[in-house]
Amino acid sequence: VQLQASGGGLVQSGGSLRLSCAASGFTLDQFTIGWFRQAPGKEREFVACNFRNTNTYYADSVKGRFTMSRDNAKNQVYLQMNSLKPEDTAVYYCALSNRVILSTIRAPGQYGYWGQGTQVTVSS
C-alpha cells in the first residue's frame, strides 16, 4: 500500500495549484481519502475528504476555494486549490482510511495510510 502526493510548489497569493495523490497496491474506490496539511509548529489539520466514494467534505477555511476529486479508474485523487492565501502554506498529505466513520473524518488518527507530503508555499 503506497500513496504518493505531488504537485506542490511556490505560488503567489491568489494563485492556484493542483495536487495529485497516486495510490498503488490497492484500489481506491472502497476507501475514504483525505487531504491534510501541516504548517511549521502546528498540528496536522483536516483539509478535505471524500467519504467512501460518496460525498466530499471540506474544512471551513478552504470551502469555496479548494475542490477535491477522485479518479478511481486511474487510482488517483486530486486537490484543486484556487485563490491561495499565505496561510495555506504547509506540507500537504493525502491519507487513506478503511475504517473512519463520518463523525471522525477530520481526525488524522483515523487514517492508517499516509503519503509522504508535498510542500505548498504561498507568498504574499
Report the principal-axis shape: globular
Strand percent estimate: over 45%
The helix/strand class is mainly beta
How far from one another are the termini? 37 Å
Q: Helical content, roughly?
A: under 10%
Number of helices: 0
Low-confidence segments, ≥5 residues, pLDDT <50?
none
Radius of gyration: 13 Å
SS elements, strand count: 11
Order of helices and strands: EEEEEEEEEEE
Mean pLDDT: 95
Biggest beta sheet summary = 7 strands, mixed
Describe the structure.
This protein has 124 residues and is mostly beta strands. The strands form 2 sheets. Strands 2, 4, 5, 6, 9, 10 and 11 form a 7-stranded mixed β-sheet that branches. The model has no long low-confidence stretch (mean pLDDT 95). The protein starts with a strand and ends with a strand. The chain is built from no helices and 11 strands. A hairpin with a 4-residue loop joins strand 7 (66-71) and strand 8.
Topology:
Blueprint: E1 2-6, E2 9-12, E3 17-24, E4 32-38, E5 45-50, E6 56-58, E7 66-71, E8 76-81, E9 90-97, E10 113-114, E11 118-123
Parallel strand pairs: 2-11
Antiparallel strand pairs: 1-3, 3-8, 4-5, 4-9, 5-6, 7-8, 9-10, 9-11
